[in-house]
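Morning. Coffee machine broken again, so started the prediction first thing and wrote up yesterday's gels while waiting. Chain of 205 residues, entered below exactly as on the submission form.
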Amino acid sequence: MPIHPRESDPAVPDPADPAPEGTVRPPRGDLPPSGPQTGPGPDTDEDSGPDAAGGPAPSEDEHTAELKELEDRWRRALADHDNLRKRHARELERERTSERSRTAAAFLPVLDNLELALTHAGSDPGAIVEGVRAVRDQAVNVLELLGYPRHAETGVAFDPARHEVVGVVQDPDAPPGTVVEVLRPGYGDGERQLRPAAVTVAKRE
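Came back before lunch.
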């Protein structure tokens, strides 16, 4: 029996034939429909949100642990600061005690010489005067070694940083504004001044 070629149904379009321009071909069952998809798919980011890029949000326990660590650091810093303050106070007091001891030790020879002068007071009054003068010079030397030189010069120009005026006198032999007499010596200079010298100054014309 001869086999005749199957006649194509004009109502069913052949998949191999291109669709006429302007016509819409119904989707085939074996191909996914074209167009936007409404449901979640493989490319859909379901976890979009503020924590999607940076990872999961920290839990309450993590916040508590971090807060506790910061509090521990703060307490340790306070303890270190308190220990440093106490150590500094102890070192300062130790330095003050040492400085007082050095100063007192420097004046011990002065006291020894004064006691020696008092021991020989009844034998020779002239020797007592010389002994007291020597003790005075020794005490002045101690103050100078400690950084407080003596100022008892006359005939020098008045310096308000070193002199304290207690009187103004008329002295034709002294230039105006110069020290005529030192009533009380001064010790030290500048910031290390113990006291200024009390002086009388020649009157200015």
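Residues 1-5, 7-13, 39-46 have pLDDT under 50 and may be disordered. Going to sketch it on the whiteboard this afternoon.
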